[in-house]
Amino acid sequence: MIWWERLTLPGLGGMVEILILSILFYFVIRFFRGTPGAHVLFGLIGLVTSLIVVTRVAELEALNWMLRQLSVYVALALLVIFQPEVRRALAELGRRHFVWDETDAQYVCNQIVRAVEELARQRIGALIAIERDIGTRAVQDTGVKLDARVSAELLATLFTPKAPLHDGGVVLSGARVVAAGCMFPLTQRMDIGHELGTRHRAAIGLSEETDAVCIVVSEGTGIMSFCIRGRMSRNLDGEGLRKLLIGVLMRPRREALWGRLWPFGRRGARGLIPSPAKEPGKGPGG
User: Fold this and answer.
1) The pTM is what?
2) How far apart, in whole angstroms, are the C-alpha atoms of residue 55 and residue 114?
């Protein structure tokens, strides 16, 4: 019997299973796309799928049995390889669903833009993170705890050269500055240009592990950058930065969730920020 003659069409139950699996695979690909482990995941899926098809079609029972026996070890290997992504997924499940007040969002955006514009004009490096749904307590514990209302003057003062807390990141929660001089986790991505310094890598790293919004001012060039979910937009002016902040902080939650799940919806959560761009003339200081 020819191998294609052994194929049978699935019934109603089989069609439902195929639909459910397709949806699950779609969400997995959407979640891992753009992460450091994406190429490994897609390569592994292609390899396993090819082996299964070959062993079933060619009736290689020994290889098929071996694949079944190795399934447990493959699952453990996936947990090790995709540990950062799994941690981020669990963090997403434990989100606090912080809701921004419109007045606070407008105030915070205006104060940040004023401070960042002044720092960029003076070529003073800065790294600011705005906490959203996923908490940043571990990052805050690496710095000095504060509890002060956000103001442009306070942010500019914290990053003044030779100030005690200038070498590190500032974390905002709502309209409050909660910590300064913090150490942000650095991204492990290898596709980022060497011209991006430590501040930019720290901003990308924190945005990969949490849903925080990060703003970076380059010390060498004064370029303003905006980072969210591991993606960075550079060469911004004050008005462009304000629009991005307002769009992220005040976007309705339902639209934000739909934008993450469906790629053809309104412009919002997906595709807002392009991949980190290479910028010439950048020193190692970030």
Assistant:
1) 0.62
2) 63
